[in-house]
Amino acid sequence: MKKVLIVVPAREDGTGRFLKPLMTPGSAMAVAGFTREVADQLDLDIRCVIWDEHVKGPVRSDNLAGYDLCLLTYLTPSRLGAYRVADLARELGVPTIAGGIDVTGLCRDGDQDQLMEHFDAIYSGHLTVASWQRVLTDWRNGALRGNIYQPGTGENFEFVIPAWDLIDTDNYIFSAIQSSAGCPYDCEFCGVGLVAGFRRVHLKPIELLEAEIKHLLSGGAKFLVDCSDCFGANLEHYRDTVLPLLKETGIPWATEISIPLLVGADGESGLLQEMKDAGCVLVYIGVESLKEKFGKNKLNLVERTIERCNQLVVLVLVSLVLDCEADATAKSVKDTISQLLKLGVHFFQFSLSAAIPGTRLHAHVIAEDSLLTSDPTVYDGLHATIGHIASPQERTRWLKYGWRRVYGPWNLARLIAWTKTHQPELLPILVSTFRRIQAGASVWKRAHRTRQSQQTDN
């Protein structure tokens, strides 16, 4: 039997370790699913193990001992963590393969050489059964070293049932399913299209989604998050198959969706009512900015969306990129937050622009020579990494203001009281999420102070 360790590396600055993760590690579970399927086809006896450093702590030598292959999947802020694991594996003679959005983005930018200094092989793009057969065949034949793999011509996006049996869902706040991959939009800062294809949407076969949900329900799942990149992107498919399936579960769920799909171009149609009827209790919408030049939604449509969600008692989580406007100031940021709070937004995700490798934003800032740092650990939306009229220190203060304003004691008490009245079944999840947000903010503040101190010393 061959043993394969699939690692989800944590960040090297420590801000990602030992905080209860919000979402189950979907990419690692998918890699395990593809590995199992291909192993059956190649008649390989393989045992997969998932090691999520956010749950189990850093991978050490004794954790890698006895494994025949180490696979790594990660986002840009965890790149150095992935290098640490890969370098350790190389010392022990365990071959490594890395893939995911960061790897694909670096390859797209022509920066794959730095990856090959650490990994034996890399995979750029989306996994397919045929391409993964080529990878595992080379591994079996000892011909892995130095190869860059990608899907072959004509190999379309594929889904497998994620390896849910390899993780303990109690270690995560949310169990995340995925009914589709990809997004019909092409926001310049977004890295989704790097793997799924730009302006492409791929629908998971309903039989796979049904089997996945059935497994989670049998394990006692009380709440689901559909982490599709753009829920409802194919209206007919979602109306005819996905929504009836979610309704049949009888448990509440949440998802990310664009405003035009949620309420239609007129603000009165879309999927909102049908989603509510199927058990949806929270929607995550990317507003980013209230200025139509920067946001992809008209202000009156944003207002009507929030109004309708409140009428139907559906919680609203809005994302804002505080420095996406070139002329953003402390006053404009505070005014935007105040305006959305008055409209009735329940939750916010605040971030700063991050030029993820491979995105149009990254190419833009490189061309303008406005990238402030190449340190991947700060490409997390919580640090100023792109030039702006406001200093990095000032933009950090915007983030702190948003967190205090929205997640301060008074507003938390208001949200908890609202939930008790309208969605009491969500109260335990809400409290767990708030605790995770507060713990994460505390860790981030400590790491930020440490980084500032180190910069001062230098």
From TrEMBL:
Report keywords, A-Z.
Answer: Iron, Iron-sulfur, Metal-binding, S-adenosyl-L-methionine
TM regions (residue ranges): none
**Per its UniProt record, what SUPFAM superfamilies does this chain match?**
Radical SAM enzymes (SSF102114)
Q: Which is a Pfam family this sequence falls into?
A: Radical_SAM
GO CC entries: cytosol
Q: Where is the Elp3/MiaA/NifB-like radical SAM core domain?
A: 173-380
User: What protein does this entry describe?
Assistant: Elp3/MiaA/NifB-like radical SAM core domain-containing protein
A Gene Ontology MF term for this entry? catalytic activity
Cofactor(s) required, per the database record:
[4Fe-4S] cluster
Kindly indicate whether the keyword Metal-binding belongs to this entry: yes
Natural source organism:
Candidatus Berkelbacteria bacterium CG10_big_fil_rev_8_21_14_0_10_43_13
